[in-house]
Amino acid sequence: MHKSKRLFLKSKRSFRRRLPPIQSGDQIDYRNISLISRFISQQGKILSRRVTRLTLKQQRLITIAIKQARILSLLPFLNNEKHLKKRKSKLVARTAGRRTRTAGRRTRKK
Description:
rRNA-binding, Small ribosomal subunit protein bS18c, 5 helices, mainly alpha
C-alpha cells in the first residue's frame, strides 16, 4: 500500500464501554434532584442522549422527571444568573442617564 493511501484510511479506535450514569439501584423520579441535575446543562437545558449516553427509555424518564420538577419549582426553567447580572448593570446605567437628561430638559422648558 502506498503512503498516500494510508493517509485516507481511518485509524481503528479502541472501543471503551462506558457505564451509564444511571445505575440499576437509582430510581428516576422528580424528587431525586441529585440524579436529575446531572442531566441539565449550566443554562438549564436538558442534555441530549449523545452527551449523557442514556438509553431511549432512560432519556424519556429523565425528561419527564425534569419537567415535573420544573413545574413543582424544584428546578429552575432557566439558569442564566450571569446574564441577569449583566442586564441589571446595563439597565441601572441606562436609567441613571435618562434621569439626568430628563431633569435637564425640564429645567430648560420652565
